[in-house]
Amino acid sequence: MSGFSDERVTAVRVRPRRGNLGFMNHNTPLSSDTSLPHTTPQAPPPGGRVLTTAQLRAQGVRPADALAAARPGGPWQQLLPGVFLLRPGPPTSDERLHAVLLYAGRPPLARVPRQGASGRTETGSPYGDAVLTGFAALALHGFSSAPPLLSLDRIDVLVPRTRRLRSVGFAGLVRTQTLPAPQWITGLPVAPAARALADAVADLDSHARSGESDGSGDCETVRRLLTEAVRSGSCEPAALVAELTRARLLGRPQVSGAVDALRAEGRLIAEDRLYRMVREYGLPDPLWNVDLRLPGGPHLGGVDAYWPDQAVALELDTGSAGRLPDGFDETADDWREHTRRREHLERLGITVVHVPPRRLREAMDEQAAVVRTALMASDEREPAAYVMVLPR
C-alpha cells in the first residue's frame, strides 16, 4: 500500500468491502489504489473495528499510515499504544474492553488450535493470555452492585508477572504469578467471580492507602459485593475467602467485617438447601443442629443433622475439596481439634457425611443419594456407641 498525506486521510471515502475481508467494513486510509491487501487471516478480529498495529500490518496497512489516520480530524483514533479504533467518535464499552485485551494480551494474528477438555479441537484465545478482572469483570458477570462499564475510568486486566507493558490510559495491568482459567462471557475472557471480586477489593484498598479515597464508602461497597456474590450463587464463601486470603486482604478493616457477614450468609443459604434436600428427596427427618456427648464423658461436638437410629451425622463443609474450611488455618489448634473430633466420631461407629455447600447447589440429587446410602448401610455395621443428643 502506498503512503498518503494528512489531506488524503481525512478525505477517505467510506467504502464497505465484502468477500474474504468482509470484516474491514470501516473507514480505511487508502492511497489512490483503493484495493485492499489480498492476504486473508484465519479469522476476523474479534474486536470488530478495534485492531492492533500487527493486525493492520497483516492487512497491508503500514504503522506510519495508521498513525497518520489517527491524527486529530482523521477517520481513525488510537485508543491505546498500538491499538486503533477504525472510526471516529467515543468508543463503546465493548470497544474499550477489546482494546484493553488487545493491548495487554499480545494476541496472535490467527487463533491457534488446541485440544480441549472434551477432546474436540478448540481455538486459543484471540487475546493471548490477557484476562479481564476487577470491576469490569464483575459487570460482565452481571453484578448489579458493580459500576456500569462505561463509568469505569480504568479496566483491569490480568497478565503474567513477566509482562513488561505498563498501565496506560484506561488499561490497568494487574500482574499475577498464576493466571486463572477464564470464563468466556460475550466472547471475552473474564476471571472467575471470586478472583474478580478479590481484585476489585484490592483496587479499593490501594486507593484508600494512597489517599485517593477516604475509605468511608469502601466497607459498604465490599459488603454489597460479597453479599451479592453469595446470594446470586456466583461463588461459594470458601472460594471468596481463599481469594481474599491469597490477596492478603482479610486483615483490612473494610474486608474483615464483610467476611464475617459473608460466612453467616453462606451458612444460612447452605442450611436452607439442606432442609430442602431432606424434604424433596424423601429422606427421614433427622435431629437438626445438635450436640453429641458421651454419657458422663467429653463433648463430641455439634453436627448439622443426626439420625440416631442409623448413627449417621451430617456436617456442612464450609470448604471445598482439598481446602480447609473457612476460618481455619492449617497450623491452627482449632483446625487440629476439628479433625480430631471427626475421627473420634468415626471410631465410635458414627458415620460422618461431609457435604460441601457447592455440591448442594450444583448436584443436590447426588448428595441426597450419598446420605441415603449411608443410612441404608447402617444395618450392616456394628452398633455404634451410645451418645447423648443435646440441642445446640
TrEMBL record:
Stretches with biased composition (Polar residues): 25-41
Start and end residues of each stretch annotated as Disordered: 19-47
Domain of life of the native organism: Bacteria
Name the UniProt record assigns to this protein: DUF559 domain-containing protein
